[in-house]
Structures are given as C-alpha cells and as structure tokens.
Write a structure and sequence with these properties.
Elements lengths: L3 E11 L2 E10 L3 H19 L9 H6 L8 H6 L2 H16 L5 E7 L4 H19 L2 E7 L7 H4 L1 H14 L1 H8 L13 E3 L5 H20 L11 H8 L14 E4 L2
Parallel strand pairs: 1-4, 3-6, 4-5
Antiparallel strand pairs: 1-2, 2-3
Helix pairs in contact: 1-4, 4-10, 5-8, 9-10
C-alpha cells in the first residue's frame, strides 16, 4: 500500500442534514488524478467556454447561478441541461483515475464539525486496515488573499479568523492517539478558489448529497433531489471505499 493518501474534503447538505465527501488519492496517483481532471476542464472550456481556472462550485453550476463562461453568448447557451452535462463530464473524468477512492459521511445534524469527527474516525479505521496514512485537505479559509493590498492589520485579523474557524477540525485531529494515529497532522485548510481537487470534492459531494436525498427524503423534506446527480454519483461506484456503506455513504447519528 502507498505510504500516504491525500484526502480532499468538502461539505454539502442543507438544514438539519450535512454530508462530507472525501476524494482519496495515493501519492503515486496524484498526478494521474490531476491529469484526468484537467482534461475535463479543457473539454469544459472547448464545449461551453468555462475557463479552466474558473472556480467550479457544484450548486452554482447545476442550478444555473452565475455567469461562468467567457462570453455572454456562451453564457446564454449554457442552459440547465448543458450545466448538468458539464457536471457529469467532470465526474466521468474523475472516474478515469483508477486509484481515486470516495468516502461520504452524513448525519442528521446542522453541525459540520460533528460529521467531520465521524469522517476522521472512519478514515482512521480504514487507514489502519490498509496500513497507510492520510493527510486531509479541507475546504475552508486559509488566510488573507493578497495580504499586501488589504494592509497588515486587516491581514492579521483574517489570519486569526481562519485559525479560529479551523479549531473544531484541528481539535478532532489532535484528539487522536499520538502513537497510533493514521490521519496525520492538522487539517490543511484550502480555499476552493485555488484548489482543483477541493472543487472536485465539491462536485462529487453535491452528487452524493442528491443520491442520499433519494434514499432519505425524510431528512430533507423541503429539498428536491435531482436524478441526474444521483446517476453521476453512481458513475463512481467502482471507487467507493469498500466496507463503508452499500453506496459509499456512511450514515451516523447527529
């Protein structure tokens, strides 16, 4: 087994039900995953004019929010059906990476930190069984953007906010047994604007959320699941972490 897996994590869900989805890739598969993802980004740009460096946010993409294309003419042609097709395209490209694995943990709670703890514990058990280790990159504020333009005082305040915001997740890591833990270090907070793989986790997580809503409509009675999202999630069935739910989703008590 690889010595280290990188795990890129993002949250989804709504109201009293939250999910966390992680994309796990071994160190030797990292370049392959990036290759397939960037190939998908290039196709998005050729087909619909979505620049390859523009942030992909699943809920905005699928629900038609924003104007992500390079021109207004392209934005006008980027219909709801086209946006769903674009989401599916990116999922299909992720599935081309043989070594990527997917884990989703969900619970009936509004607290993401509660689900995160369960997520980490499941990763711990899996990594122990596989004799490997995991580093987590989590969607979140990582510090000030272009600090020199906002001034030292404001930059320091943004850093403090980022550190405070990461505390519940940092505490989860530091509560693990020191000499036996498999999830190493504190979580690395990464702004999704600058991380292709956090964006990839968001795309998968949004699909997993809709797949889960179809099976547990009582948790999200005000939400309407989208069948194409569930179909996109099932494209990754061969990559779901084995032993963690029949559909790669672990349900925990809130």
């Amino acid at each position: 087994m690889p010595l280290v897996y990188f795990c890129y994590v993002d949250d989804s869900g709504a109201d009293q039900g939250r999910t966390l989805t992680g994309l796990l890739v071994p160190e030797e598969g990292w370049s392959d995953l990036l290759h397939h993802w960037l190939e998908g980004r290039r196709k998005l740009e050729r087909e619909w004019g979505v620049p390859k460096n523009a942030e992909l946010h699943a809920v905005h993409l699928v629900k038609g929010r924003g104007r992500p294309c390079a021109t207004e003419e392209q934005n006008s042609r980027f219909t709801r059906a086209a946006r769903i097709a674009a989401h599916d395209l990116m999922i299909r490209h992720l599935a081309l990476c043989e070594s990527v694995r997917v884990l989703t943990v969900a619970g009936a709670t509004a607290r993401i930190a509660t689900v995160y703890r369960s997520f980490v514990l499941h990763l711990e058990a899996w990594a122990l069984a596989q004799d490997t280790r995991v580093l987590i990159m989590f969607d979140g504020q990582s510090g000030p953007d272009e600090a020199e333009q906002i001034g030292q005082e404001r930059a320091q305040e943004v850093w403090k906010q980022a550190i405070r915001g990461a505390k519940p997740y940092r505490d989860t890591h530091r509560s693990l047994p020191l000499y036996t833990r498999r999830v190493l270090e504190d979580p690395v907070m990464q702004d999704s604007r600058y991380s292709q793989f956090i964006q990839a986790a968001d795309m998968v997580g949004y699909a997993a959320f809709h797949h889960l809503m179809l099976g547990r409509p009582e948790v999200w009675p005000q939400q309407k699941p989208l069948g194409p999202m569930s179909k996109a999630y099932r494209r990754l069935a061969g990559h779901w972490l084995p032993g963690h739910g029949a559909d790669g989703i672990v349900w925990v008590d809130g």
